[in-house]
Amino acid sequence: MAADSPLMALFGRSPVKPIQEHIKKAHACAERLLDFYDTAVTGDYTAAEAVRLDIARLEQEADQLKKDIRVHLPNSLFMPVPRSDLLELVTQQDRLANRAKDIAGIMVGREMAIPAPLQPLMREYLVAAIGASAKAAEALAELDELFETGFGSKEISLVSKLIDALDNQEHRTDELEITIRKALRAVELDHPPIEVMFLYRVIELIGDLADVAQRVGARLQILMAR
């Protein structure tokens, strides 16, 4: 369906651009986690708190965008895809921002010290999870083209490849999660049990960040299958 078609004009405010703006904001939260981590491992939790506050600000902005989308999203009658599918897509996108905020919040709250032998691997693991978020945002960047081409086969093929790349990135994150859990287990007796418990929780949340990114791709796949 052409963007300037009479039917498209009936849709009023297009839901596509706000949804794309929302995932940009959600992914920005995830991206800031790397700055946060690099600051936190130095032990400077005053500086880390400043980055956490920035992540929280971005998360609030993403949350406001989500609310605006829910209020202004047109009825399914005026869209080529069900309204409920777009709302679920936005819900998954929003969880990217939530996970980023949760990870930073736990680490600041505990002023968590990452054991030195684990620091490079933890960073690699975090980069992989953020990479999954980036690939989800990359796939969503094509949502306007999907709408404008009426979900044409050429555009679907392109987005399908992007989603495959996202799935591969999530799988890479899963492998790293196994590796870092083993590495932590090897040194856990050298550290206070409660600190180890929270460290396992952070590892779990970083893995969840990649899982959520994959679910964003899955929701996009459902839209294309309609």
Number of helices: 8
Which geometry do the CA atoms define?
A: elongated
The biggest beta sheet is recorded as: none
Order of helices and strands: HHHHHHHH
Low-confidence stretches: 1-11
The proportion of residues forming helix, as a percent range, comes to: over 70%
Our estimate of the beta-strand percent is under 5%
Distance between the termini: 15 Å
Oligomer: single chain
| Extended strand count | 0
The class by helix and strand makeup works out as: mainly alpha
Q: What is the CA-atom radius of gyration, in angstroms?
A: 19 Å
Q: Average pLDDT across residues?
A: 92
Walk me through the topology.
Blueprint: H1 6-10, H2 16-40, H3 45-72, H4 83-110, H5 119-140, H6 143-148, H7 153-187, H8 193-225
Structure description:
It is a single chain. By secondary structure, the protein is mostly helical. Helices cover 81% and strands 0% of the residues. The chain contains 8 helices and no strands. It has helices at residues 6-10, 16-40, 45-72, 83-110, 119-140, 143-148, 153-187, 193-225. Helix 3 (45-72) packs antiparallel against helix 4 and helix 5 (119-140) packs parallel to helix 8. The protein is elongated and about 60 Å long. It starts with 5 loop residues before the first helix and ends with a helix. Mean pLDDT is 92; it is low at 1-11.
Q: What is the compact description of this entry?
A:
This protein is mostly helical and 226 residues long. It has helices spanning 6-10, 16-40, 45-72, 83-110, 119-140, 143-148, 153-187, 193-225.
